[in-house]
């Protein structure tokens, strides 16, 4: 992962990263954090029968732990371990990570269903409870992709000025799934930065409602 370059003097240092004072509120707002805790807690409680069923189906289909762990970059450039239901026959977390493609033979039968419905992302509610993620924010990418795109997309590092999200503005605008080229990632980053610069609780609510309406069986989910 590359760190920000040529930052304005108005930025404040957060460890090895720099945060603009005016944007710090996105990550630090207490009401946003309260909504995250309540939303993630209630979600895990209500969805527990579904989560347990999916975990059992994964174990019955193939050996191994049903939850896949991978390192991602979070707030202020700190890495954390993200949780997802295991949907592939491989568990990549290294310097090279191949994105899933349509009809990818690495995806299991159960994996194809949970990826198509975005159920594979639900364990990230635990990341939200832990404070590593928010319900809404820029979607976190694998460390290998942060390193690659951080060199190619201007402003890429600015997405780390807030916590990554379970869903985000880019995703509800149709910018999700595989990034075929750098332009695809640049479009996603543009929406991420638009979210950070225009953040409000009302915007979060709108994104959450749009997520509930459009995410199940989204054509870019495979």
How many H/I helical runs? Answer: 8
H and E string = EEHHEEHHEHEHHH
Q: Helical percent range?
A: 40-55%
The order of strands across the largest sheet is 1-2
**Structural class assignment:** alpha+beta
The count of β-strands is 6
What is the terminal-to-terminal distance?
Answer: 26 Å
Q: Count the domains.
A: 1
* General form: globular
Oligomeric composition of the shown chains: single chain
Biggest β-sheet description = 2 strands, antiparallel
- The average pLDDT score comes to 82
* Percentage of residues in strands: 5-15%
Unreliable spans: 1-13
Computed over alpha carbons, the radius of gyration is 17 Å
What does this structure look like?
The chain starts with 11 loop residues before the first strand and ends in an 8-residue tail after the last helix. Strands 1-2 form a two-stranded antiparallel ribbon. It has one domain. Helix 5 (143-150) links the parallel strand 5 and strand 6 (165-167). Helix 2 (30-61) packs antiparallel against helix 3 (109-116) and helix 2 packs antiparallel against helix 4 (124-130). It has eight helices and six strands, in the order ββααββααβαβααα. Residues 1-13 have low confidence and may be disordered. The protein is α+β, with helices and mostly antiparallel strands and 222 residues long. It is globular, with a radius of gyration of 17 Å.
Give a short overview.
The chain has 222 residues and is an alpha+beta fold. The chain has helices at residues 24-28, 30-61, 109-116, 124-130, 143-150, 169-172, 182-197, 201-214, and strands spanning 12-14, 17-19, 67-73, 79-85, 134-136, 165-167.
């Amino acid at each position: 992962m590359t760190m920000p370059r040529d930052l304005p003097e108005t930025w404040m240092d957060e460890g090895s990263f720099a945060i603009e004072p005016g944007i710090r509120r996105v990550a630090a707002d207490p009401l946003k954090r309260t909504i995250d805790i309540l939303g993630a807690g209630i979600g895990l409680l209500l969805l527990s029968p579904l989560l347990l069923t999916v975990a059992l189906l994964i174990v019955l289909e193939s050996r191994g732990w049903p939850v896949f762990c991978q390192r991602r970059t979070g707030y202020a450039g700190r890495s954390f371990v993200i949780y997802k239901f295991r949907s592939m026959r491989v568990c990549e977390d290294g310097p090279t990570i191949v994105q899933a493609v349509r009809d990818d033979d690495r995806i299991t039968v159960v994996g194809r269903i949970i990826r198509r419905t975005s159920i594979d992302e639900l364990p990230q509610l635990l990341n939200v409870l832990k404070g590593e993620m928010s319900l809404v924010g820029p979607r976190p990418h694998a460390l290998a992709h942060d390193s690659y795109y951080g060199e190619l997309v201007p402003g890429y590092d600015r997405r780390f000025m807030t916590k990554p999200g379970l869903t985000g503005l880019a995703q509800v605008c149709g910018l999700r799934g595989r990034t075929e080229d750098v332009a695809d990632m640049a479009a996603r980053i543009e929406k991420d930065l638009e979210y950070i610069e225009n953040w409000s609780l009302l915007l979060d609510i709108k994104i959450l409602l749009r997520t509930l309406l459009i995410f199940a069986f989204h054509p870019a989910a495979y």
